[in-house]
Amino acid sequence: MQTESALGAHRRSSGRSPSGLRRLSLAMLATGKMAADFKGTSEGQGATRPGQVLAAFKAAAPHLGLSPRVVHAIDWLFTFTQPQDWCEGSRPVVWPSAALQRDTFGLEKTQAKMLNRYLVELGLVMMKDSPNGKRYGKRDRQGRIVEAYGFDLSPLFTRLAEFQAVAERGRALRERMRHLRRRATIARNGLLQILDTAAEQGLSDLTWRTLEAEGRALACSLRTIERIEEMEIGVASLERRQREALERLETQLASVDPSSSKPVNSDPKEPENRPHQYNYKPSSYPQEETVVASKESKSGVANTDLDQAPAVRAKGQQEGQGDRVARTDNGTVLRIKTDELVQLAPRLRPYLRTSSPAWPDIVEAADWLRHDLGVSKSLWGDACLAMGREKAAIALAIVSAKPEGYFTASPGSYFHGMVAREKAGTLNLARTLWGLRENPRRRAGSPPRQNREKGEFMNS
Question: Cys-Cys crosslink for 239: which of 112, 187, 259, 262, Cβ 3.0 to 4.6 Å?
Fold first, then answer.
């Protein structure tokens, strides 16, 4: 008796053998239409250059959910293109060999094919296949492409306006989040001051303990929040608790000394730094109001200042103020200025919003550059705490100036070692900066030496 499987019941036999050609999908067809819309850019002052297209793509990539490997692949392809390839009458096609691509990214043949297909389906490149399936091309004496088969980068040019809009929205979101974190810091410090005053006055009951516990949970959870909506709710809740604590302190102090009608200042700093004031109505369900107050930090320990006793907190604040080094945003850090650092580490430049960056701009650019180097957000935060934000940005810039073959493991592992040496007190970035100034070959691809990573940044 002849049987037939369920899978085979709907399969039609075909007399055609596999052609070996690239299989098309709807996403690939859409990318092909974008490539067909490429008209080139006219030569002149307003001409769009490859660096502008690449910078816009890299700025938008994190907000498009693209992985660092995808960004690295596009960045690598742009090293083969030239400005005249983007002019009218030409096409930005590059033809690095498959063997070179596999060696560069450390991929197997099948993995490289999957990566190329993924780039096409993302609408970033279009494959222009030759009759024999090889990638090759040639240029005339003026450097213009005469014939080329390989990666067509024109879809990136077609999507330039989209990338710029996405990057601008991302910058607006970052600025909004920065403002919210500043409000959270102000509210947390105001609540901390009120709790210290209450403890000094001997005011301690269930309401004060509840305010301190809820404030501690909120301050801890706000450190890990990334979504704007959750951050807004959490900050507003923390500000309400700060306001309630202030009103309760004023009431209890007035009942102790009725002649004292002067309200307690919750923040003796400048007026623009005082906490935002809101009327607060206590809720019977604080879990619903705080949204994320019950979450703990990544380490599992609520390591905020609110966990410490008032005396311990005051001592820590005094010691911390003595360790800070005064500087200006346009001054030097480790005797290096921002423009010289960009020259030593040019991979920072695409992420800078101005040609004359201050140190906050360098720190922001380093936060974006870390994606290219495989440095996690937690490691970057650990570096900022251990070194300070500017020094951490300098360390990351030094790592980016190293050629890829320099590292025995990865740039991220190398940066992790630098942070560990900083904590141990053996990191010497100043000496490394002088090395980069005096010997440019160390940035140009010199081969790694045995145990080079362990000794280069040690104190002499």
Answer: 187
What's the CA gap between 445 and 352, in Å, rounded?
Answer: 24
Instruction: Flag whether 178 is in a domain.
Output: yes
pTM of the model: 0.44
271 shares a domain with 181: yes
The CA distance from 194 to 242, in Å, is 8
Is residue 195 included in any domain, yes or no? yes
Using CB atoms within 10 Å of the CB of residue 447, give its burial: 0 to 12 exposed, 13 to 18 middle, 19+ buried.
exposed
Residue spans of alpha helices (H) in 37-108: 50-60, 68-78, 98-105
Check whether 172 has a pLDDT greater than 60: yes
Question: What letter does residue 85 receive in the DSSP assignment?
Answer: G
What span, in angstroms and rounded, lies between the C-alpha atoms of 297 and 219?
A: 10
One domain for residues 180 and 284: yes
**CB within 8 Å of 338: residues ≥ 6 apart:** 330, 356, 357, 358, 359, 361, 362
What DSSP element (H or E) covers 191? helix 160-200
- Tell me the pLDDT tens digit for each residue of 107-148: 898 999 899 889 988 889 988 888 887 888 999 888 888 899
Q: What is the DSSP letter of 49?
A: P
Assess whether 35 and 95 both reside in one domain.
yes
Q: Cα separation of 371 and 21, whole Å?
A: 35
Mention every residue, 6+ apart, whose C-beta is less than 8 A from residue 121: 25, 27, 28, 31
Name the helix (H) or strand (E) containing 151. Answer: strand 145-152
pLDDT tens for each residue of 268-303: 444 444 444 444 444 444 444 444 433 444 444 444
Among residues 244, 216, 238, 219, which one has the least CA distance to residue 308? 216
The answer to whether 396 and 369 are in contact (CB under 8 A) is yes
